[in-house]
């Protein structure tokens, strides 16, 4: 691939709902441009951009994949992205690196949840979008319905620039409404014809909508339009191009990847309408002044790492978009997020898994740098003397959690390394331990996400793991007051053991833990044994008295005791106080506490009743309901954590993938009697 300047480079993210045909579109674009010599098939695992073993096995896109092509003296960096919500990090990272988005919609499934999500992500970034209605040759394909739905849901400025000729099995070409010509596919060539009579009226109406939209974004053209003058094709194109590049017009095209119809026209449209890298306005923060500055291709180096992965042979690969300056092999770069300087080794592009050597990654281009040790997704690369930083990429918080352990005990050390490496690759995958728990936990976006993580762990690092739902961090406390004494006395020849204490226990304010009071007078328990008494209480509190849970929020007062000058010891008093605490706790109305989380759910208003009903079934208490903007509502509830373990999966089902939630620990509450009985019963079984 030859070298290109910024004004000849475009980067386009291929996005949409899973199953809309994004990967097939990427394959067809590669084939039509001549980048590959034959079209791969999903069924036999030969697609260029779905090359990971997990993708081939499942026949779905899991990771975003780079697919550069050359078309009419332009370089277009396509990035094929996943459609499943579990892999949203790949989509969000990609959208920060591209200049525009190609939104793929299935002609018979229409606008789906994934379409809505990627549209909203692009809207947040004010990213130019063009729409491609794929699979026009499929049964029940309905182009007009899709356009109407997108205009109703997204923008009135979703404007078709093409309409299909024929549909389903009879789909054979398109009408270019700007040129007002029909193009009929005959093999790999197109025959230009006059528009079929049955489509002339709709083409004429559509053209009027195009002219009106084009005029509204350009004052000179708008004046001419209002004066009733006819606009030339060049003026219409000028208005359309301005509108698309400024995300004010969203053109719709159509075709079929399976029949290879209108793919070349789609490539033409991308070069005609979408912005090249030099036209993109990018702002970064100058860290010397903390003021925003606008980049141009000749500015100091500023690049964003939007994806990180590990190749078994090459090592860590950092995918980055250079917005200004350039990167060459053997140069030195500065990671401002980590405050680390790194040496650049090999640089290249990728087409699927095929490496394409590069001599330089210029402004506007996307490339891959191997073996950057301290660099991860979301980091900004710059020069140390000119510290620049991009705004951080906002990734969703991982909420689906499992406990994990190595299948083989010999792999316990390796599993930590594997998890760390996978966390470097995926910002929506985290691992941690809860205070007071011995379990290692992993969290991701959903169950499929963690399934893929486990498969990658086995394939890339040779580590197999078992997972299960995490144990709930129950606690125990008391509701009453009790006084007991306990004597530990043991004689076994020689020195014996003797410890005797009298204690009082009572509840205290939640969150206080243990308050230990020494009320001994007159040396009934010598000073040197008081710490042992407190330690015995602490140890007894760790194992609880009902179901083996830690006891919290208790005041323990040491009232009295006795000792033996020969047989008393720290150990004897520790054992005596531990036994005394257990006896007292059982008399002081012990109860089991469970963690309560505050959960905030955002979803379309029409799902609010279902979400509230579901919370009620989970023993939740509704704390607030708020109607949001654009038909988005919000529900806040307090719910036991034990009822939230599967919520990430259930909310997706409940809201058809449109809901999202966040939660954080709030407090502990007493477990209902029936549940407490079950916990005690299960605890006794496991002993």
Notes on the structure:
With 687 residues, this protein is α+β, with helices and mostly antiparallel strands. The chain has five domains: 274 residues, P-loop containing nucleotide triphosphate hydrolases (Rossmann fold, 3-Layer(aba) Sandwich); 102 residues, Elongation Factor Tu (Ef-tu), domain 3; 69 residues, 2-Layer Sandwich (Alpha-Beta Plaits), CATH 3.30.70.870; 114 residues, Ribosomal Protein S5, domain 2; 91 residues, 2-Layer Sandwich (Alpha-Beta Plaits), CATH 3.30.70. The protein is 28% helix and 33% strand. It has 16 helices and 38 strands. The chain has an eight-stranded antiparallel β-sheet with strand order 18-17-23-14-15-22-19-20. A seven-stranded mixed β-sheet has the order 2-3-1-4-5-11-6, sandwiched between helices. Strands 29, 33, 35, 36, 37 and 38 form a six-stranded mixed β-sheet that branches. Strand 7 and strand 8 form a beta hairpin. It is elongated, with a radius of gyration of 33 Å. The mean pLDDT is 93.
């Amino acid at each position: 691939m030859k070298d290109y300047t910024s004004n000849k480079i475009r980067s386009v993210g291929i996005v949409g709902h899973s199953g809309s045909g994004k990967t097939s579109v990427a394959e067809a674009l590669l084939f039509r441009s001549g980048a590959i010599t034959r079209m791969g098939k999903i069924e036999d695992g030969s697609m260029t951009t779905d090359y990971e073993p997990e993708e081939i096995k499942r026949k779905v896109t899991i990771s975003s994949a780079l697919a550069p092509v050359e078309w009419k003296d332009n370089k277009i960096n396509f990035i094929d992205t996943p459609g499943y919500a579990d892999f949203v990090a790949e989509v969000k990272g990609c959208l920060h690196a591209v200049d525009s988005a190609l939104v793929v919609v299935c002609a018979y499934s229409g606008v789906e949840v994934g379409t809505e999500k990627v549209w909203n992500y692009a809207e947040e970034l004010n990213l130019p979008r063009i729409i491609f209605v794929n699979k026009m040759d499929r049964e029940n394909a309905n182009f007009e319905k899709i356009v109407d739905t997108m205009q109703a849901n997204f923008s009135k400025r979703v404007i078709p620039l093409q309409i299909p000729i024929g549909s389903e099995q009879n789909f054979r070409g398109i009408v270019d409404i700007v040129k007002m010509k029909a193009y009929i596919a005959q093999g790999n060539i197109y025959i230009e014809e006059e528009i079929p009579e049955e489509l002339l009226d709709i083409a004429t109406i559509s053209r009027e909508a195009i002219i009106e939209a084009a005029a509204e974004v350009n004052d000179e053209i708008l004046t001419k339009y209002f004066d009733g003058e006819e606009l030339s094709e060049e003026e219409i194109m000028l208005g359309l191009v301005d509108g698309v590049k400024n995300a004010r017009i969203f053109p719709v095209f159509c075709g079929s990847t399976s029949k290879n119809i209108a793919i070349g026209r789609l490539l033409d449209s991308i070069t005609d309408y979408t912005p090249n890298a030099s036209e993109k306005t990018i702002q970064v923060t100058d860290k010397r002044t903390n003021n925003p500055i606008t980049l141009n291709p000749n500015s100091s180096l500023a690049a964003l790492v939007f994806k990180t992965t590990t190749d078994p042979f090459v090592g860590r690969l950092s995918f980055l978009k250079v917005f200004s300056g350039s990167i060459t092999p053997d140069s030195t770069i500065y990671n401002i997020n980590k405050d680390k300087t790194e040496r650049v080794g090999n640089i290249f592009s990728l087409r699927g898994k095929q490496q394409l050597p590069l001599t330089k990654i210029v402004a506007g281009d996307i490339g891959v740098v191997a073996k950057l040790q301290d660099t991860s997704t979301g980091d900004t690369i710059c020069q140390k003397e000119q510290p620049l930083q991009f705004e951080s990429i906002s990734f969703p918080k991982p909420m689906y959690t499992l406990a994990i352990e190595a299948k083989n005990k010999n792999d316990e050390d390796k599993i930590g390394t594997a998890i760390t490496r996978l966390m470097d690759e995926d910002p929506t995958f985290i691992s941690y331990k809860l205070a007071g728990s011995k379990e290692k936990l992993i969290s991701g976006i959903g169950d499929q996400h963690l399934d893929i993580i486990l498969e990658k762990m086995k394939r890339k690092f040779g580590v197999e793991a078992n997972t299960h739902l995490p144990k709930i961090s129950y606690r125990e406390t008391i509701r009453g007051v009790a006084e007991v004494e306990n004597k530990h006395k043991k004689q076994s020849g020689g020195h014996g053991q003797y410890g005797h204490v009298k204690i009082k226990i009572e509840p205290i304010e939640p969150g206080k833990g243990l308050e230990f009071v020494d009320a001994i007078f007159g040396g009934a328990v010598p000073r040197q044994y008081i710490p042992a008494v407190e330690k015995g209480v602490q140890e007894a509190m760790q194992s609880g008295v009902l179901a083996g849970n830690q006891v919290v929020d208790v005041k323990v007062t040491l009232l009295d005791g006795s000792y033996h000058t020969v047989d008393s010891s720290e150990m004897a008093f520790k054992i005596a106080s531990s036994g005394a605490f257990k006896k007292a706790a059982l008399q002081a109305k012990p109860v089991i506490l469970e963690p309560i989380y505050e959960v905030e759910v955002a979803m379309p208003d029409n799902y609010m009743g279902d979400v509230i009903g579901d919370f009620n079934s989970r023993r939740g208490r509704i704390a607030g309901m708020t109607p949001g903007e654009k038909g988005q509502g919000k529900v806040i509830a307090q719910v036991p954590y034990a009822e939230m373990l599967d919520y990430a999966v259930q909310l997706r089902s409940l809201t058809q993938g449109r809901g999202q939630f966040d939660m954080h620990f709030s407090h502990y509450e007493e477990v209902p009697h029936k549940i407490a009985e079950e916990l005690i019963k299960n605890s006794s079984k496991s002993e």
